[in-house]
Amino acid sequence: MSGYRAAFRSIYHDYIGEPDKERDIYVGFGLFFAGITLTIVGFCLFLYSNVLESGSPLYWQIREVALVVGFVGLPSVLLSVVVLLPVGFKTRVVSGAGTLFCLAATIILVDVFPYAWTTSEGINGSVWTISVYATGLVTVVASTGAALVAHYLERATTSSESAEAVESSESESESVSKADVDSDI
């Protein structure tokens, strides 16, 4: 098990930096790999449902499971980025709120799919499900984007400060006068 710990820690250190909490590394990577797995399983189940007799109870059950698994997988991958990057409390709260919206949409999906998915009266289940899920997904994507931009800017600032420090130390150690330059020419 310690081999995995060292590998995760090394990857985190190489691409992100020094971790604040070691727990964030495991939660972040766990969410990432779980989200990827859930998304792939959901996609495969959805493809498998096309082999079944259209409209049969098994067809709808497999399709519902595929949608639920896919609905949970995508926000998990996006949330993992926010957990892995060293971001502020507000970014994590916004990302968590978006994830809760996605989970609420998943609960609505389970309630309305397939028989109340589309109806002719009022607002049907598909509108509610997709609206709530889209709201959550946009929120998670926005917080993930903010986390990535903040991390990029932090790394760019750190590298430019170190480059300026190197340049200033070089200029302090090498003071060349105009006469020296003229004599070299």
TrEMBL record:
Residue ranges with Basic and acidic residues bias: 175-185
Pfam families named among the record's database cross-references: CdpA_N
Region (Disordered): 158-185
Alphabetical list of InterPro entries matching this protein: CdpA_N
Keyword annotations: Membrane, Transmembrane, Transmembrane helix
Annotated transmembrane regions: 25-48, 68-87, 99-118, 130-153
Domain annotation Cell division protein A N-terminal: ranges: 9-156
Protein name per the record: Putative permease
Species classification: Archaea, Methanobacteriati, Methanobacteriota, Stenosarchaea group, Halobacteria
